[in-house]
Amino acid sequence: MWYKYFYSNLLVFSLPVLFFGVLLYQYALSSLMNVIEDTGIHSLNQVRNMTDMRMSELKNISARISADPDLSAYIIRSDGFHTREAIRKLGEYRDNSIIIDEIYLYFRGDEYIYSSEGSNELTTLSNYFYKFNGGDDQQFLQVLNTVEIPMIKSYEDVVVENTEARLLTYLYPIPPGASYTNGAVMYVIKESMLNSLIEDILGNLKGSVYIFDADNNVLVSKNREGGIQVDEVQRRLMYDGNSKQNIKYFAMNGEKYSLMTVTSDVSHWTFATLIPTDQFLGEVTHVKWIMGICFFIILVIGLSAILYISRYQYRPIRELTDHVKRVWSHTGLRGKPNNELERIKETIDEVVREHQGLVKQIDTHRPLLIEQFLHRLLRGNQKNREEADSFIQSQQLQFFEGCCFVVYITFGEGADQTASAQKKNDVLNMLSDFAWSGGHGYGIELIHEHAIALIVSVQAVEGNAKRQQEIAVIDIQNKLRQELNVPFTIGIGRYYDHITDMNQSFIEASAAAGYRLVGKNRNWIFFDEIEGGEGNNLWYPIQEQVKLTQSLKQGDREVAQETLNAILSSIDEKVQSLLLIKLTCMDVINTVFKMINELNITDNTMDLKKLVHFNSLKELHDELRRLVDQICDQVTCMKEEQSASLKHGIISFIQEHFASADISLDRIAERFDLSGSNLSRLVKEQTGESFTDYVGKLRLVYIKKQLKETDTPIKTIIADAGYLDVSSFIRKFKGIEGVTPGQYRKSR
Fold first, then answer.
1. Distance (Å) of CA 502 to CA 272, 366, 661
2. For the whole model, what pTM was predicted?
3. Which parts of 449-577 fold into alpha helices (H)?
4. Helix, strand, or coil here: 650?
5. 369-398 pLDDT, tens digit each
């Protein structure tokens, strides 16, 4: 996973760096190269402009000479004075230009040529003063006599007064611009004059500078590096055509060169510099190195930052992964995860799946959880108010504080009048979550009492709680009459402030349900009405006697002890004589003895003789408390044994009759005098499966065994297992086993 962070950060870093780096690199180098090239071209343009300016000066001088009357052919030839004056003026014109070495004036057909130094015959000039190596005198004279347009002769090796020199000759016809010319002005320019113009063009660079005429002949050259072939430069100039300025990069003699050229519109000369590229673009190379170093530094810093950021970003994922490994080490991954996020994702998926499974199980067992919670309330095992309130809130039960009580419902007056299992199941379904405008109630079946207990809470109005109880009971009674056609009796316990006191109200309600009201047109009774229904000849309330009896039947140690304390305290307060105390207490003892006999308790550890031979109320109280504890323990054990026996009997009955085609939940519930919901719960507790699934499992085991061990026809086996639709079962069998019953038999 860390590598993904690293690569993603590297990508985020590298894209802009590369993009802007390359962009900046190209822009900077391109700009710098353009500056260098522009500088080189600018230097050539300066030389060209200066040369053009000098050539324009020569043109102007020619025009002035042509217009000067003292320099006309007639005046010069007239006498010696005018000839000397003309020579002086030619000297002045020569001095007006720094590039002119000498100026000559010649008129066609004349034998003499005039200069600032004097006049000479043509033959004398060509033979003694300007000896052109390899030149032809006649050709030189012919050019002077026929020139019609300005003409430049390239530099030639000339012997001037016994000294060799390279001279450039510029011939300009006069008068300029006329249709007929009568002479020419010849300017002699030494090579050194033009060399001075291109002297500084290279600066500190090595290379060559050239000035070519219109025919690409070299006029002037300056070479700071040997081995350069001028003909290669001339060849490349021919490819440029009429380009006014140009820059070329090419390889020559194994080395790269930069050729810059500028052409003059005035003289049509081409000015060129040929410089080794590594020198010409040396600054560019230097900048490349600097930018490369900067880029490397940025790259190192960026990679270091990426490593740090990647580790910093990855740290929470790594810590979360380690935490998941520690707290969820039993994760059953289907395959090795590619990275930590996938591991976390699969772990979360598994947690969600388990959570959903737990939620589904909780939803499935919610009725059972609620039923167990109600049983704990009735038995007095749920005394923690915060825990009870938390459960009520989590299961979204509706209980109102201030008026909570228990309604105890029994059915019929004999075996022939008991409610059927189906009717009892309907009633239980109706009362399991019973609501009306004034309150809410939750009912559960009391298997051993063959009764239903309904825990009710109402929104009591201060001072009117009893009336709210009556409204609730009347509503319950009306609902029961609609569902049942057998007699039923409703006992109502006292109301209490909190739901955790329901064991008290349950004992009172079950005690009240054991009484019948004579001369009253209703089949329900409040626990408080017991005293009014019978005369009270005892010195303690008959309600407490009934409550003691019922608490012993239920095995509720807490209520039994509280009730016993209340009875003995009442006797102690009202009776003073020891004889009367003994007589009164004998009634209490008799009540306990009757309960022992009724419950058929045969515990050899009970010493009943001590109850008869007591000498004080405290001694009797201590013995009764011990005896009550023993009775409650015995009742609890008996109920557990009865419950286990009932569950075993139900499972045994199902295992014996699963092959019966008419076996059903209602039939078995009728058989054991239970509601269908309670029977389904008991089967689920014992087998972990629903009634239908358990019966189907038993039938499938039976059919597979018969297919393996016998040759009985398949249809007969299926019918013997309790299935009436053979084809439907075959499809079901294939869905479970993956093969048909016939194929399963063949595989044995």
1. 118, 21, 44
2. 0.50
3. 465-483, 502-513, 530-533, 542-554, 557-574
4. helix
5. 888 888 888 888 888 888 888 888 888 888
